[in-house]
Every structure is written in C-alpha cells, then in structure tokens.
Amino acid sequence: MKSYQEINEKIRKGKAVVLTAEEIIDYVDENGVKKTLNDVDVVTTGTFGAMCSSGAFINFGHSDPPIKMHKVWLNDVPVFAGLAAVDAYIGATEPSDTHGIVYGGGHVIEDLIAGHSVHLLSTARPTDCYPRRRIDTFIDINSVNQAYLYNPRNAYQNYSVALNSSGRTLYTYMGKLLPYMGNATYSTSGPLSPLLNDPHLRTIGMGTRIFLGGSVGYVAWEGTQHNPQKHRNDKEIPIGPGATIAVMGDLRGMSTEFIRGATFHNYGATLYVGLGIPIPLLDEEMVSFTAVRDDDILVPVFDYSVEKRSRPELGKVTYRQLQSGSIQIKGRTIKTAPLASYKKARQIASILKGWIMKGGFLLNEPAVPLPSEQQPKSLEIRGREE
Amino acid sequence: MKRQRFILTFPQHLIEEPLTYVLVKDYDLKFNILNARITPNEEGKLVLELTGEEGNMEKAILYVRDRGIQVEILSKDIRRDDEKCIHCGACTAVCPSGALYLDRENFEVKLDKEKCIMCTLCVNACPVNVIRVEI
To answer: Over the stretch A153-201, which tens digit does the pLDDT of each residue have?
Structure first.
C-alpha cells in the first residue's frame, strides 16, 4: 500500500519511479505484481483523438462604450454568448457561417492557441448599461481575460469499432466508411488509454491533475453519458463505451501539437484533443489494472449503415486484432484503420512521465469520486404530461 | 529502361481494342494497371505504368494515339505536409493500394508514392487537411 502523500514526497525529491502504460506491461511480466508495487510509483497514460464534446470559455474584456454581446462570431464561427455581457463558449463542432464544416469552433481554438489574431464580430441590443450595438475587432490569446478549455465529454473508455455493410460510402464521425464492409475504423489508444488503466476510476475524479493539450489540466466532473456500469470482462475492462470525464485547462500554455481543429468530410468539424492521466500505484490492484494489454481489451463492432439508436453488433474483436491491420467479421477479413493517433498517445505518456520524474507535477487525490452507479438514459419522444 | 505512368482515355468505340496485348507483343513493354474504369457503352479510363526501352515506349505511345486513344503522362502527385500530419491513420482506412500505411513499429503513417494510384480518396479523408494533389 502507498499513499498519495508518499508518492508526492518521492516526486518532490525527484525520486519517483514512473513508467508509461506500455512499459509497465513488461515490467509486471518480469517482476510480478508485488515487486512492481514496491518499485514503481506512477504509470502514465495518453490518448490523442477526435473529441467532439469539447469547447472553450472565453471572456473578451469590456469595450468602450461597453456591449452586452448577443450574437457573436469568431472568424465567422458562431459562438454561444447567452451568458454575461462578454462571456462566450466556443463549441468545437460549430461550423463557420462562411466556410461551413471546413473551419469550425475547433479550428478557432487551435488558432487561439497558435497565437493568431482572431476576428471578433458581435451584435447586440443596447441597454442603459451596455449602449453599444455592434463591435468588429480582433482578439488573440493574450488580449482576452480568460480562455480555458472545458470539454464536457473526453477520453471515452473503450469506444466501439465502426463499419458499413451498405452499398454506399458513409461519411461519419468515425471517418469514411467504405461500402460492403470495405473498412473498419476505431478510436482508442488501447493499453495507453487513460480510463482503461484505471477501469473503475479509483484514482480519477474531480480535481485529478492531468496532461491536457500539451499543458496541465484537471478533471472537472463526470463526462456526459458517463456509464460506469457497462458490462465488463474478467479484467474489469468494460466491453464497449463506458466511463467518460469532463476536463478543463487554460488554453495559454497549450500547444497545437496536442490540440488540433479537424473536419470529418461530409460530417462536421471537431477537435483533436491530447490527454494523459497519471495513475498512482496505490496497491496491487492498481498495478494489475495498469498492466492491461491489447488482448485484454474487447471492443464491439457496430454496423453504421443501420439508422437506429441501437445499431446491430456484428461481433467483438480485441485491440490487438484492430492494431494488426485487419479483423475477421462474419468470415471476412476487413481492413482496420485507427482515427486516434497511437504515436501521439505514446508521446503524451512519455512527456507526462518526464514532468513527474522532474518533480514539477504532483498527483492530486480526487476531491470527489465520479459516480460508480448510473446508466445513461435515452431520449424518448413524448407529450408534456406522459 | 524507362518507367512512366500514363492515363489513357478510350472513346466508347475503342473499348474492345486488345491494347495491352499489343503493348507487350509489339513494343516489348511491361505494364502494370494501377486504376481502371471501363464500363460498356461509356468512356474508359486506364491508369498504366509502363516499363521498357525508351524508343519502344515512344513508338507505343504514337501507336496508342493513332488508335484514337487520348494519352496523358501522369504527372500529378499526392503530397502530404509531414510537419502537420497527426499520424491518426484515417487516410489508411480508404487507401486501396496500400500507399498510405501505418508503420506498426512506431505507428507513423507512411506514404509510399510508388504504390499510389492517384485515386485521391485520401484527400478528404484526412481530418486535418494535410494531403493534397499537386501537379
């Protein structure tokens, strides 16, 4: 048994032993769980994938005369301003009024991080305290007050595989799905995936300090559609999409290496988010959890050609099979392709490892654990009184 | 020996010409069909890579043009901005020839231009818009 305090003390002294979620697998194989717990303090994880439920709060500061912004555009992308006078939320998937999905809220966020000037246009109904009707100017990351990511749902635990059995190409948030099961796409970093290394979220909760977009961020809340009660295999890994987290972090300090605006053709704009979570090895159970390997992760395959909430499941495959380049579904060999970058996931786990080893990144014990008993609800169509 | 890629466009009435047979037999050229779209009663398109003696290749091109087939040298190229690529792998999902592939050692997306058949499916499959067709 180890406490957060003991681990942080070692981090402060620059003596913490940190391995990435890939390195820990071999270490446990060679040394066993008991010795690993004794030798290793922290395991770092990483993922870099398209996470649509992302966005950023921004406060522009007050102009003279001041304005209570009603409609607001940043580089022609509408942003939500139904807050106080100069507060707004940039939603990652919001398309540009002039360029459509080729440039969306995610691209605005990337431009802000890159330090570019961003065009701000706002119209308003004047009030006695906010007389201005219109403002047309430029802002950048340093000219505004606050600018921070607040992503309501990131780091999905074990997202499913997509394929298409129909006769036409489908354009989806899982990329271009070729007809007649011509390909299968997936979006998880497998053994490096943050929430697969702590499947019950024992160490991940409100206040957990994380790597976010190249800088330091925090877990803010449970993610939307958080599903901790998904059916699990004997390694405690949920079979299909399970837990999610909401995360936040200052845009200042983030890097376009780890936050990128993106567009899925004929589908929409989104944001690629780089995220890594350090997992403290508190006891033997946590050691076993972080030793999760690619064939422990079982992922369901869904047919996206069926326009239903519950798409038919065509089978289950392991992450190892997905990473090999092909899977077998209904007796056919189907080419697989990832949408999340494993290369970047590795890079994130390794950068986070460096931060902790150098002593500058301490672990936060969650202030509040995330719910462990709840299931996502679906939306029914009904009348007011039903 | 010379190797060159060509796009051949057939008018409807020439679709049944045994063209590749002549290229091999009379001009001693090796051919590799990179992309073909030949449907009855329509125009046909053939992307060919030819290998052989330079003189033979020139004569062969004259022969093909004489038959009323339009011949263009394939000089377009797929370019990727390697600096901006995030190596996600989305392009490998649609690449039919394996020109774009994931290196399973370091999980980088690699582009093997030798295998590219210029189908251009990857261009809009790239979520960060770093693949382009250049002439």
So the answer is: 999 999 999 999 999 999 999 999 999 999 999 999 999 999 999 999 9
Same domain, B84 and B57: no
Q: Do residue B106 and residue B123 come from a single domain?
A: yes
Range of the domain at B35: 2-73
Residue A221 pLDDT greater than 90, yes or no? yes
Phi-psi map region of B107: left, alpha, beta (phi>0 left; psi -120 to 50 alpha): left
C-alpha to C-alpha distance for A124 and A131, rounded to whole angstroms: 9
pTM: 0.91
pLDDT of amino acid B15 = 66
**pLDDT confidence of residue A316:** 97
Question: Which residues of chain B have a CB within 8 Å of the CB of A338?
Answer: 88-90, 102
Which positions in chain A touch B122 (Cβ < 8 Å)? none
- Of A336, A173, A159, nearest to A240 by C-alpha is A159
Nearest CB neighbour to A343, from listed B106, B125, B129: B106
Same domain for B122 and B61: no
Is the domain of B9 the same as that of B52? yes
Separation CA A243–CA A222 (nearest Å): 8
Q: Does A262 touch chain B (CB under 8 A)?
A: yes
- B92 vs A contacts (CB less than 8 Å): 337
Q: What is residue A327's three-state secondary structure?
A: strand
Mean pLDDT of A43-58: 98
Query: Chain B neighbours among A 10-69 (CB < 8 Å)?
Result: 48-50
Same domain, B92 and B127: yes
Residues near B55 by beta carbon (within 8 Å), at least 6 away in sequence? none
A52: annotated active-site residue: no
pLDDT of residue B16: 67
Sequence ranges of the domains in chain A: 4-51+150-368, 61-144
Same domain, B87 and B129: yes
Any A CB within 8 A of B129 CB = yes
Q: Are residues B125 and B86 both part of a single domain? A: yes
- The pLDDT of A243-253, averaged and rounded, is 98
